[in-house]
Amino acid sequence: MIQIHLIPVDRLREAVRYLVKGFGSEPKEIEMVTENLVQANLTGHDSHGVGMLPRYAESYLEGSLKPNAHIVTQMDGGAMVSINGQAGFGQVIGHEAMELGITRAKQHGSCIVALGNSHHLCRIGAWAEMAVAENLISIHFVNVISPPKVAPWNGADARFGTNPFCVGIPVAGQPPVLLDFATSVIAQGKARVAYNKGEQLPAGMLIDDKGNPTTDPVYVVKPPSGALRTFGEHKGFGLALICELLGGALAGGMTTHTQGDGRRRALNGMLTIIFDPKKLSDGSVFEHEMKAFIEWVKASPAQAGTEGVRVAGEPERLTRAERLVSGVPVDDNTWQEMVAACSKLGLDGATFQKLAGL
User: What is the pTM of this model?
Assistant: First the structure.
């Protein structure tokens, strides 16, 4: 039985700040990386939370992650911009890219932001949250440059990454609609979390190194590598393909077309479309019809054994409220990986654990 630590969010923040200092990050970067990762855990997306730091440490030590980097504009067409993230922390690069895109969308009514060469952008929903906070809609197509982990529909090995897709829509007087998912049936990090907890995955999610169905997440975590499947069979594969072409080939200038070179980097390309819905149509009609539809679908009777209809973004808000009270669960294997990352970065693991209250 793998031990699960319930860590108060403030203690977790203190420990993560300490670990991120090991990258040589400036104070503002430390705060941005820490808060982004902790918020991922609070929303229930442990796959994109503090457990990513050991992977970041490996990427940094091999020279693939560049601390204290910032966006560089490669093309500026006013309502269209192309940006290079210089392999900087995605928590910083994504924030800067969205700040620029939001400013331009307010000026022009819309903006297309093509971002390439960013290190792991983490939970893409965080960037949609920035847009909806300014009453803007955003759509995100993302690819992943890393050893492939996802098989194409009817394929027997991994050929691309988890390629997230995200949409954020503000709703006046109500929480936003926030759709954020990997085009694989689960995110790669969720397989890592299951492996560290000693759990099997449900049938149908992945294949082994021979292309046969399996429930063992080890085939996504360690060699010999298998592959995750796409969600929705051929439909998920189709959307993953679009994310690779728009987020990768167009925005990032890089697609996956090799099995990788052994590096631990996780680079993202992201094509983001940001626009002001009030500039497009009668805002009152849009608001009325949006709220009417949400109310209509949520009124559907719950199926037996379920919690009823939940709109995209609602499960994350409920989990955040719960974990702010109960603490953030981190399994002991993941925690020990973080302690080991401290040592790799020249930090004291005992101090790290003490800051977390462990």
Answer: 0.96
